[in-house]
Amino acid sequence: MTQDIADQVLAGDRGATARAISAVENETAESGLLLRAIHAHIGRARVLGITGPPGAGKSTLTSALIGAYLDRGLRVAVVAVDPSSPISGGAILGDRIRMGVHQSDDRVFIRSMASRGYPGGLSRTASRVIDVLDAAGYGVVIVETVGAGQSDVEIGLLADTRVVICPAGFGDEVQAIKSGLLEIADIYAVNKADSPFAERTEGELAGMIGLRTFTGWVPRIVRTVATTGAGVPALVEAIAAHESSGGARIGPRVRVRRLIAAGAADWVKQRIESLSPPAFEALCEAYARGEVGSREAWRQALALALDEGAEGERR
């Protein structure tokens, strides 16, 4: 059965693709077999990350990008990560409503995923869902993040090209968050650019770019009005320029390496913060007194966290 679904995914069957994504998202027993069956067929899609603060117009601009890529003869998939419903735990489907104009097009696949409390603006299984859509033959996979603000940066681990959407009037906040969300951008889209504040926002972004040193690609700024499509062709051209400039092509192998490293670091951090045995308290005291160096303290804390985790699994 798993191989049959995998074969249907590789043939581009939308129903099978939806079932495969559900299995991967819920991490069922069959999901591992399914991922192994499609592994040799991933790595072809370009992954485009769309992120930015709430209210920036991410979903509306994503819908406009879908239309632009369809006009270029490409099949497009969207992974829209939504906040989790406090009642059902599922995704709040606002993104799919705004992109509904494309739902009936066989060349388009739109999937909302609940963040389920996962930090960084994504879902824990987002990378695996991208692999399924890649194997299904979608040439462009657009990943739209929750829009959590400064910490919404994990898209930098997944996307080949990262577009950060800044609504016009955002300028005063640029300095406040420049060390977070804004610094992952390959392209800045100043959306709602029919606002009189667009020029100021663009100037703030340009000033921030001017203060940084880049090797290779220098982030571009594009003005857009997502509701009318103004500026969308220029945004698509900027994305294409990044792709052809030698801009980093992450690919599935690097993507998985980065996510495993980030997940392991998060797990260790949580585990260490929850440690309470006397050995850890003694280590903290020794470190505070300067009797243990930083690296040795980290090594001992990691060993305690791993021992605690193993003990918990035995219990």
What does this protein look like?
The chain is α/β, with parallel strands linked by helices and about 325 residues long. The chain folds into three domains: about 1-40; about 45-250, 3-Layer(aba) Sandwich (Rossmann fold), CATH 3.40.50; about 255-315, no CATH class. The chain is built from twelve helices and seven strands. Strands 3-2-4-1-5-6-7 form a seven-stranded parallel β-sheet, sandwiched between helices. The two termini are about 35 Å apart. The relative contact order is 0.12. Mean pLDDT is about 80; it is low at about 85-95 and about 115-120.
Write the layout of secondary structure elements.
Blueprint: H1 2-10, H2 14-25, H3 31-38, E1 46-51, H4 58-71, E2 76-82, H5 94-98, E3 108-114, H6 126-135, E4 140-144, E5 161-167, H7 171-177, E6 187-191, H8 198-210, E7 220-223, H9 232-244, H10 251-273, H11 278-288, H12 294-314
Parallel strand pairs: 1-4, 1-5, 2-3, 2-4, 5-6, 6-7
Helix pairs in contact: 1-2, 1-3, 2-6, 7-8, 11-12
